[in-house]
């Protein structure tokens, strides 16, 4: 398998030529919060698959719902004229789930990038229907991650995900993120930094002209960019500014939705109601590729009352409204609610965050620790704390490997090691991750 992998498989987010030098670990089994590789090595999964397996890998109700749905109706198109019963049921469950966020309509997709693509397209269309066709630009944050389709890549903050594919969508502008450890203002105070970032947002809107901007997309807690938790004034500030300028606010809840931040959604965590929210990942706990864009009543009504006949026609995926995805989502949401996974996410997230801070006292290599809001925790590694010199990628890879050998899978993302385990994790299992990291950091 390792040989065939090197010869035939191109992996996402990897250099195809690297497969021989750095062969990926082949995972063959997963149970509860533990994964096993092809060599029989079992570890605690500190990644939740990829920030998505909130209920762990042995969730019977989700498995059974998928099996039953495959038996009854594995698929039928929802394009023009047909749909299925499961997705209708799901849309009502989602309307209840997102009611506190002010979101009541759903457009279904097959994953996060599809959801982001959909939300950006809907934002442009919304303004067009309202007679403001000049609102075409998008704003996002410099450390934000929103996916890999051309539109999503265009709003991604990290040039690594953009440069190789340029020219991208024109009219996308990136605002400094509230990242206290490194920022163009050299401001370490979270509240003052939030105000500086909001001022930069205002300045960009003024420079571009508010009537040229369709939407701003923001992760309520930035995930892949290294778990950046903004000050509590930031998201309300973004909401106030975007609303004042008629710019739609899209909350990218692909990671933060469904309990991960310790509340049911990231937006709710900050007391903000977006105009749209993108979801995917934990909506089905990754048991089936699926996603949904949620829309507010006010935004939805613009489409629903459209008399030009143009609304939405021209956008949809073969697998939009997939009945198996919908069945997986229904079972996942019911199980997450039954277990109130957001509560454990808050408690275990705090345990991991405090554990990371203790590791920082023991390991000089840790420059910064971020998290404390649910099961999203990161440590940024440096070769020198005083100068914050970024560490060599080989060292991060060594820590990662040594941590894996010591019993836990964590995620490498740039200079960060990230921990985003299943939300059902026990205190002891979270401690296994902390102990393994301690050994991994020491060994490397
Ligand atoms: N938005 C966010 C916030 C994400 O973290 C991701 C993926 N990690 C995406 C969008 C893209 O989702 P997908 O990989 O399912 O296309």
Can you describe this structure in just a few lines?
This protein is α/β, with parallel strands linked by helices and 444 residues long. It is built from 14 helices and 16 strands.
Low-confidence region ranges: none
Our estimate of the beta-strand percent is 15-25%
Top-tier CATH class of the largest domain: Alpha Beta
Shape: globular
Strands of the biggest beta sheet: in what spatial order? 4-10-9-8-7-5-6
Rg calculated over all Cα atoms = 21 Å
From the 3D structure, determine the CATH topology of the largest domain: Aspartate Aminotransferase, domain 2
Major sheet, described briefly? Answer: 7 strands, mixed
Total strands: the figure is: 16
CATH architecture descriptor of the largest domain: 3-Layer(aba) Sandwich
Bound molecules: 4'-deoxy-4'-aminopyridoxal-5'-phosphate
From the helix content, strand content and strand pairing, which structural class follows?
A: alpha/beta
Tally of helical segments: 14
* SSE string: HEEEHHHEHEHEHEHEHEEHHHEEEHEEEH
Q: What is the oligomeric state here?
A: single chain
**What's the domain count?**
2
Distance between the termini: 28 Å
Helix content: 25-40%
Overall pLDDT level: 97
Can you identify the CATH superfamily of the largest domain? Answer: Type I PLP-dependent aspartate aminotransferase-like (Major domain)
Keywords: Aminotransferase, Pyridoxal phosphate, Transferase
Family: Belongs to the class-III pyridoxal-phosphate-dependent aminotransferase family.
Pfam family, one: Aminotran_3
Organism: Meinhardsimonia xiamenensis
């Amino acid at each position: 398998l390792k040989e065939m992998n090197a010869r035939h498989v191109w992996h996402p987010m990897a250099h195809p030529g690297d497969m021989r030098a750095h062969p990926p670990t082949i995972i063959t089994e997963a149970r509860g919060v533990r994964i096993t590789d092809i060599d029989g090595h079992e570890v605690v999964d500190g990644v939740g698959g990829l920030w998505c397996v909130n209920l762990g890998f042995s969730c019977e109700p989700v498995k059974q719902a998928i099996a039953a749905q495959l038996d009854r109706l594995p698929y039928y198109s929802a394009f023009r004229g047909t749909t299925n019963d499961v997705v209708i049921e799901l849309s009502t469950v989602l309307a209840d789930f997102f009611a506190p966020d002010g979101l009541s309509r759903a457009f279904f997709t097959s994953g996060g990038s599809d959801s982001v693509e959909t939300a950006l397209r809907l934002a442009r269309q919304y303004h067009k229907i309202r007679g403001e066709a000049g609102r075409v630009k998008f704003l996002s944050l410099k450390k934000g991650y929103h996916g890999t389709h051309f539109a999503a890549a265009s709003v991604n903050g990290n040039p690594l995900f953009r440069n190789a594919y340029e020219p991208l969508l024109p009219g996308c502008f990136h605002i400094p993120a509230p990242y206290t450890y490194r920022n163009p203002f050299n401001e370490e105070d979270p509240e003052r930094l939030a105000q500086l970032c909001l001022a930069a947002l205002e300045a960009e809107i003024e420079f571009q002209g508010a009537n040229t901007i369709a939407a701003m997309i923001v992760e309520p807690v930035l995930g892949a960019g290294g778990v950046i938790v903004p000050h509590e004034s930031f998201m309300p500030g973004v909401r106030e500014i975007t609303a004042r300028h008629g710019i739609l606010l899209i909350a990218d809840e692909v990671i933060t939705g469904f309990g991960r931040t310790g509340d049911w959604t990231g937006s709710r965590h900050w007391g903000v109601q977006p105009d749209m929210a993108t979801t995917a990942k934990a909506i089905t706990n990754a048991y089936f590729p699926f996603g949904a864009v949620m829309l507010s009543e006010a935004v939805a009504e613009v489409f629903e009352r459209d008399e030009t006949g143009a609304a939405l026609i021209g956008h949809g995926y073969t697998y939009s409204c997939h009945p198996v995805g919908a069945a997986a989502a229904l079972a996942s949401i019911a199980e997450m609610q039954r277990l109130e996974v957001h509560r454990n996410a808050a408690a275990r997230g705090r345990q991991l965050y405090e554990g990371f801070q203790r590791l920082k006292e023991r390991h000089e290599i840790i420059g910064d620790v971020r998290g404390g809001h649910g099961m999203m925790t990161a440590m940024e590694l440096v070769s020198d704390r005083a100068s914050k010199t970024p560490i060599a990628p080989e060292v991060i890879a060594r820590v990662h490997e040594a941590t894996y050998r010591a019993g836990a899978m964590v995620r490498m993302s740039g200079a960060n090691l990230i921990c985003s385990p299943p939300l059902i994790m026990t205190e002891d299992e979270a401690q296994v991750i902390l102990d393994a990291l301690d050994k991994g950091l020491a060994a490397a």
